[in-house]
Amino acid sequence: MKETKKEKLISEREVEHVAWLAKLELSKEDKKLFTKQFNEILSYFKKIDEAKIKDVQPTYHVIDLENVIRTDEKTPPLSVNEALQNAPKKERGYIKAPKIV
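Structure (tokenized):
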């Protein structure tokens, strides 16, 4: 059986450009390796493109999700002392923060 030559989807020059954008220095071997790996990855996308999805509805989640929301309940507000009990510094009923200029 003859091996069919794989279609090149990305060239070594494009790999060099991507490396330049990422500020990476690649050896000749790395450029060849990354070119091969990128082309293998992109060929998988071509296989996905072949899927027959004409009658498939788009899904946003794999499983049906439903928000579980509790109803709001009216409660009395905290007193000033309760609200400030965990504040590290307090002054005259307020939280004291460092001065920022």
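The two ends are 77 Å apart (CA to CA). The mean pLDDT is 87.
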